[in-house]
């Protein structure tokens, strides 16, 4: 591939080994606040809200019914007793006292405390002439209402029913109408029995709350299980598909929304499987085509190379135009041969037929042999920093291709001198030592938009250029060779200028059978 110049200082360089990529996988462990827990809690919350609302409404209705029943009996009976009071005017204290005590004894649903007020006169059925639970508001209401009034009053932590009735005088049929005598009777009754009944209702509702929740727990668990079963099946199926088992399907049960979801998943999985199969078949055909074409071209290309070598030897004796044409044919035939070999190599990687033949080698000596075999020994072109004593287990032929491709790429697209540096780096995450090989040039660097694509096949930074100096597969083959060793390769821009290719491989690449 070709490079475009970038502004000075763009990008950043690195001299340390990148951390080994890790993949994490979330298992199917129960989560403290997973969907099951939330469903059960929601069900119990609804049950608790329902029980609480029902208990509150029941308590309110029962309380009102109990109090109103007692209140109606008391008011009705007190009114009947008050109508029997025959007191002449002016009011005699002893007569009024006897009437008050008689009414108190006959009180319903239980005895009352009866008080009478006439001006400044105060009479009661108890030792106290007045009651503290008779409010001024009730007194004012009694004076203004012919049929009396009543109140429920809370005092001293207890509830009282107070009833006030004015005593009226009926002169007779001939005169008609009634006349207020100014005498008011008050009945006071403690509602302790009713309050005890109400407290018993509250206690019963409270004691029944937890058993009701316990009973609601069983349908909650059953509902959560019925809802989560298809969800678990969907999760398991999705994990299987993520692992490559595209024939995974979910058993559809019922006709609810979850069944529709399972049916939709099965349809999507079937369509995905069909598409992937078609893509794999197309990819296999493409790989087979490239491999077959490359293989078929090797024999005629070998003959063409032999002919061009002969023509090159005789080119000096030909006229200039013919000699130029012969050299052009020879050059292009050589490029075509390189392209065919690269295509066959990349086809082996695609078919997963590439193998590692590892051996323990002196890495510095291996790099020196690579540079020497390609006549890259000019100090003005190549600068090396290769400390001796670094030994690694790798495939010498494939490592030779990696170094040759990176150095050749730097010489074609960068500026000399090209620096080849060898070092080791310790990784604390897995406590291993890695081999680090860097190839840096002094060129303009690589444009940031191009950096992610430098290892793509046939990628051109300048789309206007139809030809490149190489086959367009050199860096792609480098990437595959490094991956085969279990390593990584990446490109960065040095802040001082130029591009840096960093190859990181474990010192022990593994046995042949593992590769």
Counting DSSP H or I runs of 4 or more residues, the number of helices is 9
Low-confidence stretches: 4-28, 510-515
Overall pLDDT metric: 78
Number of strands: 12
Overall description:
- There is one protein chain.
- The chain is of the alpha+beta class.
- 49% of the residues lie in helices and 17% in strands.
- It contains 9 helices and 12 strands.
- The chain has a 5-stranded antiparallel β-sheet with strand order 2-1-5-4-3, with helices on both faces. A 5-stranded mixed β-sheet has the order 7-9-10-12-11. A two-stranded antiparallel ribbon has the order 6-8.
- A hairpin with a 5-residue loop joins strand 11 and strand 12.
- The chain is rod-shaped and about 165 Å long.
- The relative contact order is 0.11.
Notable features of this structure?
515 residues, 12 strands, alpha+beta, 49% helix
Write the layout of secondary structure elements.
Layout lengths: L34 H49 L9 H13 L7 E6 L2 E4 L11 H9 L4 E7 L2 E12 L9 E12 L1 H51 L14 H58 L5 H31 L8 E4 H11 L8 E4 L5 E4 L1 H18 L4 E10 L4 E9 L33 H11 L3 E6 L5 E8 L9
Parallel strand pairs: 7-9
Antiparallel strand pairs: 1-2, 1-5, 3-4, 4-5, 6-8, 9-10, 10-12, 11-12
Helix pairs in contact: 1-4, 4-5, 5-6, 6-9, 7-8, 8-9
């Amino acid at each position: 591939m070709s490079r475009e110049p970038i502004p000075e200082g763009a990008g950043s360089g690195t001299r340390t080994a990148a951390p080994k990529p890790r993949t994490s996988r979330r298992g199917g462990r129960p989560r403290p606040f997973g969907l099951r827990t939330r469903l059960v809690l929601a069900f119990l919350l609804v049950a608790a809200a329902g029980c609480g609302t029902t208990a509150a409404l029941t308590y309110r209705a029962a309380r009102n019914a109990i109090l109103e029943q007692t209140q109606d009996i008391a008011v009705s009976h007190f009114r009947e007793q008050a109508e029997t009071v025959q007191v002449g005017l002016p009011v005699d204290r002893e007569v009024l006292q006897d009437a008050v005590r008689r009414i108190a004894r006959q009180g319903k649903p239980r005895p009352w405390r009866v008080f009478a007020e006439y001006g400044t006169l105060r009479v009661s059925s108890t030792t106290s002439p007045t009651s503290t639970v008779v409010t001024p508001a009730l007194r004012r209401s009694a004076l203004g209402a012919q049929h009396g009034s009543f109140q429920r009053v809370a005092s001293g932590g207890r509830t009282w029913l107070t009833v006030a009735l004015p005593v009226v005088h009926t002169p007779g049929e001939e005169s008609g109408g009634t006349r207020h005598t100014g005498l008011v009777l008050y009945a006071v009754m403690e509602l302790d029995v009713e309050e005890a009944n109400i407290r018993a209702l509250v206690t019963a509702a409270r004691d029944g709350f937890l058993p009701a929740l316990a009973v609601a727990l069983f349908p909650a668990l059953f509902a959560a299980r019925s809802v989560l079963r298809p969800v678990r099946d969907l999760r398991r199926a999705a994990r299987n598909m993520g692992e490559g088992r595209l024939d995974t399907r979910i058993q559809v049960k019922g006709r609810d929304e979850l069944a529709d979801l399972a049916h939709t998943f099965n349809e999507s999985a079937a369509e995905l499987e069909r598409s992937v199969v078609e893509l794999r078949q197309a990819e296999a055909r493409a790989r087979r085509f490239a491999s077959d074409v490359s293989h078929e071209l090797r024999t005629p290309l070998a003959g063409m190379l032999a002919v061009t070598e002969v023509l090159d030897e005789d080119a000096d004796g030909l006229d200039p135009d013919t000699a130029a044409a012969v050299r052009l044919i020879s050059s292009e035939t050589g490029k075509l041969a390189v392209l065919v070999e690269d295509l066959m190599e990349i086809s082996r990687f695609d078919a997963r037929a590439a193998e590692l033949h590892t051996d323990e080698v002196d890495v510095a000596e291996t790099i020196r042999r690579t540079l020497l075999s390609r006549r890259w020994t000019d100090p003005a072109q190549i600068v090396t920093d290769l400390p001796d004593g670094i030994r690694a287990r790798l495939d010498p032929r494939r490592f030779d291709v990696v170094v040759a491709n990176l150095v050749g790429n730097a010489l074609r697209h960068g500026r000399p001198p090209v620096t080849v540096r060898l070092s080791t780096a310790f990784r604390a995450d897995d406590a291993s030592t890695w081999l680090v090989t860097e190839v840096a040039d002094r060129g303009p660097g690589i444009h940031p938009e191009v950096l992610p694509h430098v290892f793509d096949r046939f990628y051109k930074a300048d789309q206007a250029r139809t030809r490149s100096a190489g086959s367009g597969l050199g860096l792609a083959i480098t990437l595959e060779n490094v991956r085969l060793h279990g390593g990584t390769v990446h490109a960065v821009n040095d802040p001082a200028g130029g591009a840096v290719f960093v190859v990181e491989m474990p010192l022990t690449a593994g046995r042949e059978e593992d590769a």
